[in-house]
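Handout, page 2. Input:
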Amino acid sequence: MVMTLIRIVVGFIFFGTVTSLTMLVLVLLFPFRTARIKTCNYYGKFCGRGMMAISGCTLSYEGLEHLDSSRPAIYVSNHTSIVDGFLAMFLSPVGTVGIVKKQILYYPFFGQLYFLSGHLRIDRSDPETAKRSMKELAQFVVDHALSIYVWPEGTRSRSGKLGPFKKGVYHLAKQTGLPLVPIVVAGAHKAWVKGSMQINPVPIQITVLPPIPTSDWQDETMEAHLESVRQVFLGVLPESQHP
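Output:
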């Protein structure tokens, strides 16, 4: 518990300092949304790696060559722990837009940074507003040749087991025509259990798979498309993270 407390204190100081300095830069860039997004991508690569180092978790990788900043894509990852946010921050290629729930604004430091970042916040309690925001984002990323990072389950899994994929990722693919690049994260649910203050320095395996084309996806077979992508995740995740 003492080591956990030390990690939390050191992490809070590091995160608060780097985030505060980045916010100053974002204020100066406020008229330029694309520049703010890319600035936050660079911030994420530094801050995300730093936070994972502080956590003590051992990271191993496969397929990092599929994280290609020159080729826009929709990066989809499973979601089991708060550390997934830090992983997403440094795995996202420069020019990648994140999508989170609007409650992120209440998080100290990070909420204020996210407000300035140019990334998307959605209101899950208002489906129509959320759909409109996603459609506007789709057009924005197409116009500026950007990528998107999303957790298709929509919420964290307490057990680490893969949940069903929401329809939002299908609509993003249809509206942008971008391929999906699966980022499979195994073991993160043991690092910081939801609702706990205990940080466990566990091994985490990150596997990035080849792009999945979506240009021929049809509404009539939407569920089948989503399930086919989900099966790709199940083919990589350990049995303990299967439903």
